[in-house]
Every structure is written in structure tokens, then in C-alpha cells.
Amino acid sequence: MKVAKQFFGLFIVVATFMGCQSKASMPTNFSEKTGFDYNDEQNGFFKVNSVYEGKIPPGTVYISVMTTVKGSNNDPVSAPNNNAKRRISNSGYFMDEFEVTNLNWREYVAWLSGVYAHEPRKILLAMPDETVWRKELAYNEPYVENYYSHVAYGYYPVVGVTWKQAEAYCEWRTDRVNELELINQKVIPFRDLKTINKAIKEKPDSLYAYVFSTKKAGEFIRAIYGDSSAVDLDGMLYDANFRLPTEAEWEYAAYGIEAVDGNVFENQSYPWRGEQMRGFDDKKTAGEFYANFIRSRGDLIGIAINNTLTVPVNFFPPNGYGLYNMAGNVNEWVLDVYRATTNEVVDEYNSFRGNVYQSDSAYAESILDKLPKMDQVMRDSMRNVLIKEKKFAATGGDFRSFKDGDKLSALGDSILRAENATPIEQANMISDQARIYKGGSWRDRAYWLNPANRRYLNENKCSNDIGFRCAMSSVGGKKQN
Questions:
Q1: What global pTM score does this model have?
Q2: Range of the domain at 95
Q3: Which of 47, 160, 208, 255 pairs as cysteine with 132 (C-beta 3.0–4.6 A)?
Q4: 83 to each of 73, 344, 346, 380, 405, how far by Cα in Å?
Q5: 172: closest CA among 157, 465, 198, 164?
Q6: Is residue 334 in a domain?
Q7: Residue-wise pLDDT tens digits, 315-353
Q8: Is residue 116 included in any domain, yes or no?
Q9: Residue 215 lies inside a defined structural domain of this protein
């Protein structure tokens, strides 16, 4: 009996200890540190949204936290050695289920056409370059005339857009999803495009007051209510902005391998198991292709099965994460500046090359926006406090060439100086405007369908085989799809 009591006592201790390991519930209506109430004028001084509910961006799939080996996983003799293997980790993020389509891009252009009807230059610069389909020795005029604009190609991936244009689309999409959130929550009124165009045409300096911008959401609200404190936007907007995925994010998501306890234990060459280009697991789909690519000279999969070079973005089965066309159809822009990573100069967490930070003195403005409203003299004084006393840098930082490990693309103080290079050497130098694209396309061999393989193109150029999809960082922990 005594032994039984001792065992029971030990069980209670162990159970109590185990209970301490679980997540404790936090109060949501008062401070557990001071005892004051939140959002209570009678017994509190702090207005805050203490309940967090993460928003799932429309059209996206959540890719969970991972640690994996990134880089080359095949060994052809003639392959460029520009993506050395290394282990990295990434925080969770959202990725578009489908590539951005012609229909998606036409929606974007339609919005610009309404808001900036008086500024056709803005509309013209957003249009995709339809002449990318022209070839000296091929008759592709039907694609030039129809691919972007014809209803038959609505759900085909948009092409002929530069990296810069893709980034502009991501920013526009961020503004629109946040605008709709505020409209649905009756924070701001809906305004049709004609009304917006008329207002900014008459008052071009008041653009921020009529065209919603996530960056200037506070100014937009002030223009409506006259006081920024009238509406608390905390938790109303999406946690982060749409952007192009980093190379590490894109490569991991492309494989679609399920992680176990945050680790990936299996490797593969394509976004599906095995080394075959055709299905073999399911009797119903056995022998069918997994992707749109070119098998040999003149043998294009898209033409053979769909009578078109590209295919709709949902044509082939998705990978293990539910992402479509992560191999073939069109290559996809990613966020990174291109450099060969032969010496493994990368960060272990959220690996990315391409950071260009604005000056901290400019960043200080967002800090000052969080303080009580002040006149311009006081604001200038507080900015000086940040710069002089808190040591905010007066200039930003450009890290696109940071620890550049590729001798063939050497810049600045690297071994090969641009001013000493021959014209041929200069032509082969990789500039800070070179952006990576991945995934293979309708006109690529199977080699380029491997998610590890990478190429580059100037961010201001485009092609008939490069499209993109958007991503968004996850904030505040795990999300449910």
C-alpha cells in the first residue's frame, strides 16, 4: 500500500511536470504583468488587439517550416556547377497554388486602366510584351495576336513580363487584398475606378487619399476620418506583403516532399517521385506526362497533348504540397540576384541574395508614425534622436554583391575589376540586375525541370517561357491551410 502511495505521488509529480511543458493560456483582456485591463477606459491605458488570427492569403498554400539540403542533386558532366549543396532552414510561408495567369494580369491592367485613364504611360508599361513570341524562322503570329488577350488563353500562364513587372504586380496585389479586407470590415468605403480616376485627375497631389496603398494605409484612413486614432488597423491587414519567392523557398516548395519533424529525409530529381517523366503509380494515369517540356528536337509535349506550346496552369497534377506546374510549362522568376554559390557563401536561415536596405533615417519615419501626433518641428527633432542617439545609419545598404564568391561575375573590389576587363569579359560579367529563374519550360529539356537547376536574366528583360507566382511570409507561427 505504501509503495502504491509512493508510486501515485510520483505519478502526480511527473504529470505536473509534463503539464508544465504544454503551452499555457494567456489572458486576452488584461495584462498578466501589471493587472491593468486592455482597452478599458475605466481601468486601463493600453488599446491593443490581443487576439491573433492569421489570415490565409487567397489562392495560396501554406508551406511549413523546414530544414533541408538545397542545391545540385545530379551530376551531368557538362552541367554548370553554380548551386553547391548546403543545408538551410526556412520559416513558414505561403505560395501561390497556380502560376499567375493571363486573366490575372488582365485584371491588373484593367484596374490600372480605370484608375490611370488619364496617364496611359502607366498602363502601357504594365502590358506584357507580346512580341516575345516572334522568332526569325517560325510563324508564331497567332500567339503574338492572341496569347495574352484571347479568352481561350485566360488560364494559361502570363509570359512576356519582366522581373520588375512581376514585383510591381505583387505590390499591387498586396494593396488590393488589404483594400478588400477594409471594405468588408466597413472601415473604408468602396469607390469605383471612375470615381478614383476623376479625383486624382483633379487633385494629383492627393493620390494617397484616393488610391489605397498598404504602405500609406494610415494616410488613407486619415484622409477619410481626419484622425489616425479613429481606426486601429492592428490585425485588419494581412501579416506581410506579396512578393516573389526566394530561391530557397521556391526550390523547397517545388519538390513537395513532406517534412518529418521539420526535416526532409528524402531526395528526388523532380517535383514527383522517381526519375520518369510519365506516371506509373496509378493505373488510370499510367503513361501520362507529369509536365510540359520538350523531349527531343521538335517534340513538344504541349503541342502533342493540347495543341499549344504552354498549357493551362492546372493541366497537370499538383506536387505533394498542392502546387501546380512547379516543373515545365513556364520557368518562374524568383526574388534572388544571381550569383554562383560554388563556395557556399549563404546564410543558414532564410537564405537569400538581393538585400538592398533603405537608409535607417528613412526607416525612422515608420518609427515616428507610431508615436503620438506631433508637429513637423518636433518630428524633425525626434528623427535626429534616432539618427544621433540611437545610431540609425544615415545611408542604406546594398548587399547584392556581398561576399561574391563567383570569380566569373566578380564586381567592385573582387579579383576581376570591371574597368580592367576586356569587352568579352565585361559582357560575361553578372550584374546586380541579373535575377534567377527556375523550373524549366515548354521549350526546355528535362534537365531544367530539376528544381535545383538555375539560370538568370536581366530583371528588365522578358521571355516567352518565363512567368511567375507570388509568395508571402508567414507571421506569428503555424497556419492551417
A1: 0.82
A2: 60-187+233-348+435-473
A3: 160
A4: 9, 8, 11, 47, 11
A5: 164
A6: yes
A7: 998 998 999 999 999 999 999 988 776 555 567 767 778
A8: yes
A9: no
